Automatic annotation (TrEMBL):
Boundaries of every Cupin type-1 domain copy: 64-214
Lineage: Eukaryota, Viridiplantae, Streptophyta, Embryophyta, Tracheophyta
Cellular localisation: Secreted, Extracellular space, Apoplast
Any one GO CC term of the record: apoplast
Stated name of the protein: Germin-like protein
Record's signal peptide: 1-23
Superkingdom in the source lineage: Eukaryota
Keywords per UniProt: Apoplast, Disulfide bond, Glycoprotein, Manganese, Metal-binding, Secreted, Signal
PANTHER family: GERMIN-LIKE PROTEIN SUBFAMILY 3 MEMBER 3
Keyword Manganese: yes
GO molecular function, one term: manganese ion binding
Organism: Vitis vinifera (Grape)
Amino acid sequence: MKKGVSFLVTVALVALVSSLASASDPSPLQDTCVAIDEPKDAVFVNGKFCKDPKLTVAEDFFFSGLDKPGNTSNAVASNVTTVNVEQIKGLNTLGISMVRIDYEPYGQNPPHTHPRATEILTVLGGTLYVGFVTSNPENRLISKVLNKGDVFVFPIGLIHFQFNVGKTKAVAIAALSSQNPGVITIANAVFGSDPPINPDVLTRAFQLDKKVVSYLQSRF
């Protein structure tokens, strides 16, 4: 094979692999692509049904209520108010979303991961102990205590958490690099899957007594 042809084939293969391996949202090819459930008054762009841009209105890009604390009366004493493409249809193809997180004293946003987004978090009030764990084999904990005005980044796909170490309520705002970041809460996924994971698998994986595994599964 000639060098010129070989080079072009290599470039094409690299581009193909890169496109297949990409985990981020695709770039938009038009100004707006407001998500729509029904194809009526819609056009098909970037693999999604979008509202006809001529029919786009301000409400397609608007959400109200992020100033209100969420209900933290739950087992983890925290609440995540999500603002993604489900709440703002105009976020479709724009590759961004955000959340508000409220924490009771000693409440937490338990270890979880976002399979499709990096997260940047800003503390608006209170004191949070936050961190993420790097991938195998190091599994290194990167953590820090944050106060009002501090910012911290959680890289895409890595397990991370926030814990209110203060004696007062805390609140934070986070932006995520996907219109639909997804969330996998580790304990819920492992011990609360439907149907349940065979306890023998978890007993060996976590080096626990089978009764302990059964108890944990009953909690989720």
